[in-house]
Amino acid sequence: MNLASSITGTNPAEAVLGGIIGSGPAMSEVFRLTQQVAKSKASVLLLGETGTGKELIAHAIHGLSRRHERPFVRVNCGALSESLLESELFGHVRGAFTGAIDNRTGRFEAAHKGTIFLDEINSTSLHLQVKLLRVLQEREFERLGGKKTIHVEVRIIAATNQDLRAALEQGTFREDLYYRLNVVPINLPPLRERKEDIPQLVDHFLNKFAADTGGTARSLAPKALDKITAYHWPGNVRELENIIERSMVLSSKDVIQADDIHLDPRTISTAASDDIPFLPDGMSMEEYEQELIREALRRTNDNKSQAARLLGLTRNALRYRLSQMGVDTPQ
After folding, report:
1. Strands 140-142, 149-151: parallel, antiparallel or unpaired by DSSP?
2. Which DSSP helix (H) or strand (E) runs through 249?
3. How many angstroms separate the CA atoms of 237 and 21, rounded?
4. Which of 25, 30, 120, 208 would staple 78 via disulfide (CB 3.0–4.6 Å)?
């Protein structure tokens, strides 16, 4: 997913973080943590749904660190079987298994002095977790089938779209590895919890795809933007990018209308609940969202936690929206 922004700056931190779009309070906190943790050697655990930009943040941490001239190596732990992933991470020696005709360097060796990004860390087996823990603690390992101990100096950034605390309770993730990885956690908010960033994202994607095709810049009609903002965005920024590209391909208009925006009908309700009805056309997004919030509070007798779940928001996100509405809420 390419979220490169046109925002630039003379400050190196601004230049790197300029590749991640968002100016609301949720992303401002992510930016602050990213810049702060980049200066250290601490392990980082990125938490967020698919499509929220975890790899972009991992790249930014590496780019802002003293390791920025060293390798950045990405491994998708969920894309390989256990045996293949073990060989991919740690390498293997000739004859380690059928088809191992030569010695092979693993990703940890390739990332020496740099950063390794372990995406979907939640999908690793308990066997591999033991080996990962050893690398974190001792900075050493052996290639698959080998006896020589290899020492590496590498920073580990891990990411997950699952609740690792639930995995701890289920016994599918080691507690000691969790705490080694979770030195500095960074939570990436889903797009539905930072809708104030949607106009900026839409503008960026419109300009991006226009530049890619050599066409002129296009825009969205107000009702089209309202429609996009009201959507729940289960696929987050990645889905938004796809929707904008599809709309530009299928529409020849200079101003893209609401009818040109084709959203997933299964998740069109912002409230993520069939019980809360759609509101009439012509209502502004602000009025639409406030009415949904009031309806959720009515249905839950002003229980903020239940209302937040009904709306598909975190309690903090609901509290933020209520404060914008001028409704005071206790911490």
Report:
1. antiparallel
2. helix 236-250
3. 10
4. 120
328: which 2 tokens?
């005071």
- DSSP tag of 190: P
**Total length of the chain:** 331
Rounded to the nearest angstrom, the gap between the alpha carbon of residue 242 and the centroid of all alpha carbons in its chain is: 16
Hey, what domains does the chain have and what are their CATH numbers? 12-189 (3.40.50.300), 193-266 (1.10.8.60), 269-331 (1.10.10.60)
pLDDT in tens, 253-297: 889 999 889 887 655 544 344 444 454 555 666 677 788 888 888
Q: Give SS3 for 141.
A: strand
What CA–CA distances, in Å, run from 317 to 26, 33, 219, 237, 307? 9, 19, 29, 18, 11
Q: Bridge partners of 151?
A: 140
Residue of 134, 145, 148 lying closest to 99 (CA atoms): 145
User: Structure tokens of 51?
Assistant: 């499509």
Cα distance between the two ends of the chain: 36
Q: How far apart are CA 184 and CA 35, in angstroms?
A: 12
